[in-house]
């Protein structure tokens, strides 16, 4: 425990990776499609998603339940691959390597050191019969080739870093002896253990109560900022990613409908769906019990998606064109330098009211 806390965690990043050039794409996904074979036909969960992430950048992926956020996150990580029952196409370059062209061993070597994932329910990542410290020290020893004693020291340092009081005592406990919030902190420590360049957090707080949710999100934010780690934060809630991410990708029925700076989307959403999501966020200046607008209808069945824009059946601005031709994701009309993109035949304009 001779090292200061920060150094103890950043050491593997510094040792394992060359110094990142600012703005270098760390992750480049191009035309990613993931479909599952089901008895009723092909379920196209992710249908042509392209995005990129630079070193240290934070991206939010938001959308309703079933829009394909988790499948996308797992496909980017290489946890879902092409195989029996599943078709994956397009490319995912992570640190210059095509995740889907690596051997299973090559992919495993990336997990933990290049990319790590935090899932919704901490118990999916924790073995109930394994002590907290062992979860950490095993992966540290595997990837960083440290001695047993050094790995144990580093495990305790990591637990302290994620805000666990009495980390040495906690390391000797089993997961069920910790609260839900503490367990998610352990999972975050596991994800950070080998200094990955990219952290994918898939709804990391939904299993926790509201007060703990904020603490965990704040912790994730400060850790990833301190460590200069790129982050993808997946959430069904646009409010969760506001103020916590540089960019946001709004997903609808397996596709990106808007992809832009988070502040720009909040300031002036161009897609009617993004606009509706923002309108449904409760605001402090509203009187209590204000009825928030909801989006009428339901997302389409991904086994039989509509031919045109997938949001058209729920969009009050939809025209015949929307029903027949799917809009491509393209730079904001009239403002192509803004770096934002929208997939809509009738994006909300500068003077239009952002309503659905
Ligand atoms: N292994 C699988 N086989 C068949 N269909 C699947 C499989 N995994 C996911 N799906 C389907 O793919 C679609 C997208 O699922 P996904 O879990 O990515 O949604 P999500 O946006 O993460 O939703 P939530 O907010 O509820 O987590 C869903 O309709 C889901 O039922
Ligand atoms: Mg999900």
Structure description:
The protein has helices at 5-16, 69-77, 104-110, 132-144, 148-161, 167-171, 180-192, 210-227, 238-241, 262-267, 272-279, 320-324; strands at residues 25-38, 41-54, 58-62, 86-94, 97-98, 115-118, 198-202, 230-235, 247-252, 255-261, 330-331, 341-342. The chain is of the alpha/beta class. The strands form two sheets. It has an eight-stranded mixed β-sheet, sandwiched between helices. A four-stranded antiparallel β-sheet has the order 2-1-4-5, with helices on one face. The protein binds adenosine-5'-triphosphate and magnesium ion (MG). Adenosine-5'-triphosphate is lined by residues 36, 38, 43, 45, 63, 65-71, 236, 302. Adenosine-5'-triphosphate (ATP) binds next to strand 1, strand 2 and helix 2.
Quick recap of the structure?
The protein is α/β, with parallel strands linked by helices. It is built from twelve helices and twelve strands.
Question: What labels would you give this structure?
Answer:
356 residues, alpha/beta, four-stranded antiparallel beta sheet, 12 strands, 32% helix, disordered N terminus, disordered C terminus, binds adenosine-5'-triphosphate, binds magnesium ion
């Amino acid at each position: 425990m001779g090292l200061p806390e920060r150094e103890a965690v950043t050491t593997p990043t510094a040792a394992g990776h060359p110094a990142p050039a600012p703005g270098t794409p760390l992750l480049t996904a191009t035309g990613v499609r993931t479909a599952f074979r089901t008895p009723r036909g092909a379920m196209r969960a992710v249908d042509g998603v392209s995005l990129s992430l630079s070193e240290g950048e934070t991206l939010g992926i938001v959308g309703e339940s079933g829009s394909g956020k988790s499948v996308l996150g797992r496909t980017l990580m290489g946890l879902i691959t092409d195989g029996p029952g599943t078709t994956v196409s397009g490319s995912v370059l992570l640190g210059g390597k095509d995740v889907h062209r690596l051997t299973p061993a090559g992919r495993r070597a990336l997990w933990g050191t290049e990319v790590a994932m935090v899932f919704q329910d901490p118990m999916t990542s924790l073995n109930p019969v394994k002590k907290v410290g062992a979860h950490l020290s095993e992966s540290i020893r595997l990837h960083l080739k440290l001695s047993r004693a050094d790995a144990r020291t580093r495990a305790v340092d990591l637990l302290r870093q994620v805000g666990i009081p009495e980390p040495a005592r906690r390391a000797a406990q089993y997961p069920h002896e910790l609260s839900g919030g503490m367990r998610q902190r352990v999972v975050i420590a596991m994800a950070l253990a080998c200094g990955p360049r990219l952290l994918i957090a898939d709804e990391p707080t939904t299993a926790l109560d509201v007060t703990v949710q904020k603490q965990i999100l704040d912790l994730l934010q400060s850790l990833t900022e301190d460590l200069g780690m790129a982050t993808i934060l997946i959430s069904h809630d646009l409010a969760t990613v506001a103020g916590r991410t540089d960019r946001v990708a709004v997903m609808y029925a397996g596709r990106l409908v808007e992809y832009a700076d988070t502040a720009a989307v909040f300031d002036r959403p161009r897609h009617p769906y993004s606009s509706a999501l923002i309108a449904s966020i409760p605001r402090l200046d509203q009187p209590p019990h204000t009825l928030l607008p909801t989006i009428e209808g339901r997302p389409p069945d991904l086994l039989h998606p509509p031919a045109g824009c997938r949001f058209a059946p729920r969009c009050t601005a939809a025209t015949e064109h929307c029903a027949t031709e799917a809009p491509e994701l393209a730079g904001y009309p009239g403002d192509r330098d803004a770096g934002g993109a929208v997939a809509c035949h009738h994006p909300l304009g500068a003077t239009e009211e952002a309503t659905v």
